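Hello everyone,

My group is preparing for a crystallization screen and wants a predicted model to guide construct design. The compound we'll soak is coenzyme A. Before spending weeks at the bench, it would help to have a computed complex in hand. I've included the protein sequence and the ligand's SMILES below. Output in structure-token form would be ideal because that's what our pipeline reads.
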Amino acid sequence: MRGTRKFDAAVVRRATEADVRALGEFRWEFKEGGGSSEDRAAFVTRYRAHFSQNPALHWVVEDDGSVVGMATLRLAAKEPSPGKRHDAIGYLTNVYIKPQYRGRGRGTELLSALIDDARSRHVELLIVWPSDESRPLYRRLGFSGQSDPLKLILVEDGG
Ligand SMILES: CC(C)(COP(=O)(O)OP(=O)(O)OC[C@H]1O[C@@H](n2cnc3c(N)ncnc32)[C@H](O)[C@@H]1OP(=O)(O)O)[C@@H](O)C(=O)NCCC(=O)NCCS
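Reply:
Good plan to model first. Here are the tokens for the complex, ready for your pipeline.
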């Protein structure tokens, strides 16, 4: 029964150059969906270039000693306002857990760490376009909204 199972703690951390291959392969698995015209190895090479050319806050989660999931936060700076410290908004994307590791709390742990980090960076709010599958997870984490994108307000009135 869900909720009664126990799993070991995961390791959640920022991705490094050493994770780029795993990130590219996860991205391919996530988006390939069968019938892609792009070869997996070629895509991973293209992803590697994207990773170095487009800096972002990439996160990974490890389970059983290997990387099993990822998430990316892209920040957009707001123009500063006097007396307000929260000067960025965050676009959450690329959220993926390998199928065999789902339902173990890894997605929750990964996103909780990313959200805590965003708070510490004075990010005002996060937005995400959820998949149908991920909608309950985002709702549990506090994201809300009547239509997509869902948003998570980290500080009211720009802090
Ligand atoms: C959406 C996704 C990231 C969720 O990852 P996950 O690791 O399965 O997430 P969690 O395990 O934290 O939560 C999933 C379910 O497991 C349950 N769960 C969480 N921790 C648990 C635990 N310790 N023991 C048992 N069940 C647990 C939760 O209740 C949750 O159920 P709910 O979603 O119906 O509320 C994953 O399904 C995925 O990669 N999907 C494909 C890509 C995708 O849709 N990405 C989102 C793009 S916006």
